[in-house]
Write a structure and sequence with these properties.
Length: 349
């Protein structure tokens, strides 16, 4: 599928084409269900989900990122106590029939003390009325869903998580900015104006204990984006060896060195993926350290690919410069390198 359906679309996706049909096809092939014990006949297999994301990201990390978005929103529902969502929504997310994203960038920074939460709600007898704005939420479009956290005000203040439908009354999605790459990821700003969220759409209330269950899987799943970008960069370096190997020998981060580091990273991913519900802070610190190491190695690999391919890598739509932009995305998408270092320091202290 990657060679047949994804490879011909990579440049168009990078320039802004949202590949809805391809994302549905990826789901039909089973890529979104590996990590979902209730939806996968073989049981929960986080490593298999990451492997699929790795293979996709090696060709197109925009699509790999949207795969992670889909995996993440399904992960929320899978780990929720809301049987209604598990019965009505989860099978559609797992199969790719229903597409969705995750609006947890701001809440993750909020819980880390980096920024204020942006969504606020008033509780009613049968739900919540939510107001506020969120920037840059991905893998969205008409008739999509996403997981979101809001702060409930009033007599019982707390943080609550819900599954939100993009066609809900009062919710607007707008594409307000143009990025230097990964434009085809369905990324929009969200505007909540008295959006009513019924209680049967609540994922967790309060959200604190739920976050403890999902956070390791949420972060670890992102490893597939990093390892895939690194793999793609190594292939670019290897492809020019017959022609440029005699002069590229003077460069740092040669493909064989990067390959060794990548395989070590993949081995650690597989090890950590066997225990994603481990509540030990030392385990979560390992997950964060892996995610950080993946970002840093992706940057090294992308820089190496640019230098190994030379001027050809600097051409418009050249794979090397696209991989460079993708690697920077791995490094800045929440949790970004600076966020990861802050969290790791807190766990060490």
């Amino acid at each position: 599928m990657i060679r047949r359906a994804l490879k011909p679309k990579v440049i168009a996706i990078d320039h802004g084409e949202y590949p809805a049909d391809l994302l549905h096809e990826i789901g039909a092939a089973g890529a979104y269900r590996h990590h979902l014990a209730s939806q996968n006949p073989a049981g929960m297999d986080i490593a298999a989900a990451i492997d699929d994301m790795d293979r996709i990201s090696a060709e197109c990390m925009s699509t790999g990122f949207m795969t992670w978005c889909q995996d993440a929103v399904a992960w929320y529902v899978e780990n929720s106590d809301n049987q209604h969502l598990k019965d009505t929504v989860l099978p559609k997310l797992a199969s790719g029939e229903l597409l969705g994203g995750t609006a947890l960038s701001n809440p993750m920074k909020y819980f880390a003390g980096i920024e204020d939460i942006l969504l606020h709600a008033e509780e009613t007898a049968d739900g919540f009325i939510v107001n506020g704005n969120l920037p840059w939420i991905s893998n969205l479009g008409e008739h999509h869903v996403f997981g979101s956290i809001f702060r409930v005000e009033g007599d019982n203040p707390r943080d609550v998580m819900a599954l939100v439908h993009t066609d809900t009354a009062g919710l607007s999605i707008k594409q307000l900015v143009e990025f230097c790459g990964m434009e085809g990821t369905g990324t929009y700003a969200l505007f909540f104006e008295d959006v009513f969220i019924p209680k049967n759409e609540i994922i967790a209330d309060p959200v604190g204990p739920f976050l403890q269950r999902i956070k390791a899987g949420f972060v670890l799943l992102q490893a597939g984006m990093a390892t895939g970008v690194i793999e793609g960069c190594i292939r670019l370096c290897e492809d020019v060896e017959p022609r440029l190997g005699h002069i590229n020998a003077y460069l740092d981060d040669r493909p064989d060195e990067l390959r060794e580091a990548l395989e070590d990273t993949r081995a650690l991913v597989r090890e950590l993926a066997t225990d994603v519900h481990n509540p030990d802070p030392a385990y979560f610190r390992q997950v964060l350290e892996l995610r950080l190491a993946g970002s840093e190695l992706a940057l090294r690999a992308a820089n190496s690919a640019m230098l190994h391919t030379g001027a050809n890598g600097y051409l418009v739509d050249a794979p090397a410069q696209r991989k460079l932009r993708e690697a920077y995305f791995v490094a800045i998408v929440t949790p970004a390198i600076k966020h990861l270092r802050k969290e790791i320091e807190a766990l060490i202290d």
